[in-house]
Amino acid sequence: MLVIPVYDTLILSNIQINVQEEVFSEQEIENIKEEDEFIIVPIKTQKSRSTLAAEDFYDVGILATASTFTNNEGTQLFAVDTKERVKITALTFSEGRVDAGYEVLQDIPDISEKEEKDYFDAFKHYAEEVIKGYPGAPMLRGLIRRWKSLNEAATNMGSYLDIDSKERFTILSSDSLKERYELILEGIKRLVGSSSVKRDIEDKMSKEQEDSYKVMAIKKQLKYLEKELHGLEGDSSSDEEKFEQKIAQSDMPQEAKKEANRVLKRMKMEGGHGSEYGTLYDYLDFMTSLSWKASKQENVDIAKARKILDRDHFGLEKVKERILEQIAVNSLKGKQAGSILLFIGAPGTGKTSMGQSIAHALGREYVRISLGGVHDEAEIRGHRRTYVGAMPGRIMEGIKRSGVSNPVVVLDEIDKLAKDYRSDPSSALLEVLDPEQNHTFMDHYLNVPYDLSQVFFLCTANTLDGIPRPLLDRMEVISLSGYTPMEKYHIGRKYLLPKAIEDAGLQKGQVTITQGALKKIIANYTMEAGVRGLKKQLDKICRYSAIQILEKESEKISIKEKDLQEILGNKKASHDEALKKQIPGVATGLAWTQVGGEILFIESVQTEGSGKIQITGQLGDVMKESAEIAYTLVKSHFADSGFAFDKKDVHIHVPEGATPKDGPSAGVTLFTALASLVLKKPVKKKLAMTGEVSLRGEVLPIGGLPEKLMAAQRAGITTVLIPKKNEEDLKEVPEEITGKLSIIPVETIAQVAKESMGVVMK
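and the corresponding structure tokens:
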């Protein structure tokens, strides 16, 4: 992370300050434009950047972001937004640039709301005491009364304190909020006392001496005042004048300009001390910062886009082809056309990163909006400005953040939207994701239409469950199935390992992993459809290698299979394998999970009883109903088998009882297990099945077939029964999987019984 060194400056978290360009070097300015965040770190003594060393820095800094703007005089300024305090863990120096590793520090919230207000009032009171008696005090008093937060007040007052850099660092490094404000308050009190003494002395001085002292004091105060004005406002013009100019120069449509001018008129009437001044200021600031028509020029090159997608993602050929189709159509039409793309897949399959690749391919800005846990419609549409603390919705906030009107926006985790009795956020997305409506999208905070038709929207989800049907109808579902072991091997070798080596600070070629070791990591240390777990394991190996290299044990590290237990510990993944011994009453099914496919054993036994059926294994309602349907089918078709249905109880169990299971696709497996029990015929070896059953004995289609077949092949299954209606889905399954399996489509339970047990049903 880029480091900006500062000397003899107190900067606190969660404030915005405006600073001049001279604070940064030319190289740092370029880096700030490229990076989202940087760290402001105080230094012990004033030095040039070229002579700074690690010992010159204090070990606590402030995480910050910056954006540039130009005042009326043509001076470039930076609006710096500070965030959390951080602990500096490492510093690196390269060609005048300083980078740092860091850990976020947590403040101790040992101050109540009342105490916070008392401190804020005290800071403002003492600040007005300090400026009392100086020319220019009314203007400075106006600045003081515009302070919006305790941290802002503390930071501004901190610049006047007569304390050294070590004392300023003591304030910054304190974890206790109360201690931090107490230290600043003590310094302010000393400053006020000094100012009071000075005023008493001035009263006793001769007129000539008094005038001379006042001249010097005024010059010093004006210097501070000028610095403060430039820091807080960027220039000396009024807020009203700045907004008036911005509105006139903006590309707002007439309706938006009319609303902005109306609010500006109210702002002028309120004056700088009005109760609504801050709210009106925030609204105009958002309106004038928003890009309305100044879209970034798009240069669509399908060949280049294809190359970028292939570079960033291995496999997923059909997915990438569909994306290229969408890019081509949007390019020809000049706006978002057709349905919004919805990427469905397990975690780690590349859904979100696909959005980044699309943005890069189109040359557009990229915005990710996480929808996980959002339960309020106002977070999508914004709050009406009549509410205290009103804010724009996440959509418009993301558009503003991008700086253009046509970014690539990824709505992440759309299946995690929540709703309560008050509102349903998914209903707000209906307008956002409808190309026929979103050209006049109305955010409640803006209160004027905004054209979203130029935005390239993408959505991601883990499952279709939880996505309302009206919202789903506006999107085209594109499934990202889990990766095969061979695909994971290539992804790990080509993408993940080089990135892990770079992240660990190692050089290319310093760490190598043998083919057998990488395959063993995939098989024994990951249990997922994606590659996120694989990345974590490779990161761990690279960190281990870094220690070995720094300890001078070796210049290069080669990781073999025998080394894995020492580095990664015992194997963490446990996949079920095909049954080695077949017994009546047991059948092997296939299931889809969040981490990919798995095989599922259905066990059944008979006991003396009265014809009852017992079902265990933490099964959901749908799966319990499938079990009852399967038992009914067995009783109706094998009534003459000699099995005393009215005198025997049947117990059905699905192992791993602590894991919840549900879904209709276990229907054929349940039927086969029960038929095997009743007929006392074991199911054929290395055979698995999936499919829903009806009371008519039909085998109905299911979902997640690619992941299920991958699980079957991994478990050593050789034959798989699938619904006849799922044959088309086999095109989505990699050939390296289908080539190793005998896949038999079935339409009825009679076919299931014949293929699984060799039983011919009447």
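(Above: one complete record from the training split.) The chain has six domains: 3-104, 113-233, 239-289, 302-480, 485-568, 586-757.
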